[in-house]
């Protein structure tokens, strides 16, 4: 979510197919990240989110905060 943001489209497809996998991925956006990684996820979710993935981006942004 920090270095390969364009893969968020693939992540979205996987999450739609398996919501528990989405929960698993979101659970790994946590305090083990550096502050810079969290900032990058927040910025990507706000500024680079494809229009049809707003829900997923919102979840990523909220978890990174």
Please characterize this protein's 3D structure.
The protein has 65 residues and is mostly helical. It has one domain. 66% of the residues lie in helices and 0% in strands. It is built from four helices and no strands. The protein has helices at 8-17, 19-27, 35-47, 54-64. Helix 3 (35-47) packs antiparallel against helix 4. It is globular and about 30 Å long. It starts with 7 loop residues before the first helix and ends with a helix. The mean pLDDT is 95.
What would you say about this model in short?
This protein is an all-alpha fold and 65 residues long.
Topology order in helix (H) and strand (E) letters:
HHHH
Q: How confident overall, as mean pLDDT?
A: 95
Gyration radius, to the nearest Å? 11 Å
Uncertain stretches: none
Main sheet makeup: none
- What portion of the residues fall into strands of 2 or more residues? under 5%
The oligomeric state is single chain
Q: Please bin the fraction of helical residues.
A: 55-70%
> What is the count of helical runs?
4
| Count of folded domains | 1
In angstroms, what separates the terminal alpha carbons?
14 Å
Q: Estimate the global geometry from the Cα principal axes.
A: globular
Number of strands: 0
Question: Which class of secondary structure composition applies to the elements?
Answer: mainly alpha
